[in-house]
Amino acid sequence: MIRYLKSTLQTVKNKLRQDKEYFGPYLYIDSFGGDVEALMNPELVEKYLTEAVALAGMNVIVPAKAFLYNHPDIPEDSGVTGTVILAESLIGFHSFERHGYAALDLFSCKSFDKHILVEHFKKTFNPERLTYRVVKRGRGFTR
Predict the structure, then answer these.
(1) What is the DSSP string of 46-87?
(2) pLDDT at residue number 16
(3) pTM of this prediction?
(4) What is the DSSP letter of 138?
(5) CATH of the domain at 97
(6) What is the rounded CA–CA span in Å between residue 50 and residue 37?
(7) Are 123 and 14 in contact, with CB atoms under 8 Å apart?
(8) How far is residue 99's CA from residue 128's CA, in Å, rounded to a whole number?
(9) Is 119 a domain residue?
(10) pLDDT of 6-36, one tens digit each?
(11) Cβ 124 vs Cβ 41: under 8 Å
(12) How far is CA 139 from the centre of its chain?
């Protein structure tokens, strides 16, 4: 019994150590429907990205910039793309008007509160459906 408990304790310790040995969190959001005018507004996307970075407590290297892109041959690929270059990594946004779809990607070497960022996305773009996930990037990276 003691051997089993020691083995179990070591397994738990190893798992906790592995959870700390990664480079950083990567949040991605997929949303559908909602406020298409907001999704297609570069100024609003820039404002959202600027606020999201502040909420995450990150440091801006290149401020938010968003662009409306009208694809000349494939109209359904038209949308807004925006990004902020961060000291901690980057945040990017893409929307596609005809699909009512938007995606957000935030990769960082610093932890952040995913719930605050997801709620701010919902408040800004009012999606009908939203999914998100946080992945631990760079497993095995030690500081």
Answers:
(1) HHHHHHHHHHHT--EEEEEEEEEE--SS-GGG-EEEEEEEES
(2) 45
(3) 0.82
(4) S
(5) 3.60.90.10
(6) 19
(7) no
(8) 13
(9) yes
(10) 565 565 455 545 556 888 999 999 999 989 9
(11) no
(12) 18
Contact in structure between 59 and 88 (CB atoms under 8 Å): yes
pLDDT higher than 50, residue 113 = yes
In terms of Cα–Cα distance, which of 142, 136, 143 is closest to 24?
A: 136
Total number of domains in the chain: 1
Is residue 10, in this structure, part of any structural domain at all? no
**Integer CA distances (angstroms), 57 to 22, 50, 51, 111, in order:** 20, 11, 10, 9
The chain-wide mean pLDDT, for the chain, equals 88
Cα angle, residue 132 at apex, residues 124 and 56 outer, rounded to 5°: 60
Q: Which two tokens stand for residue 97?
A: 């008007």
Kindly report the backbone phi and psi dihedral angles of residue 97, in degrees, each rounded to the nearest multiple of 5, phi listed first. Answer: -55, -50
Does 5 reside within a domain?
Answer: no
Q: Does residue 91 lie within any of the structural domains? A: yes
**The domain containing residue 73 runs over which residues?**
22-137
CB count within 10 Å of CB 107 equals: 19
At residue 48, what is the residue type? Y
Residue 84 has pLDDT above 80, yes or no: yes
Task: Please give the pLDDT value at position 20.
Answer: 64
Evaluate whether 22 touches 141 at the Cβ level (below 8 Å).
yes
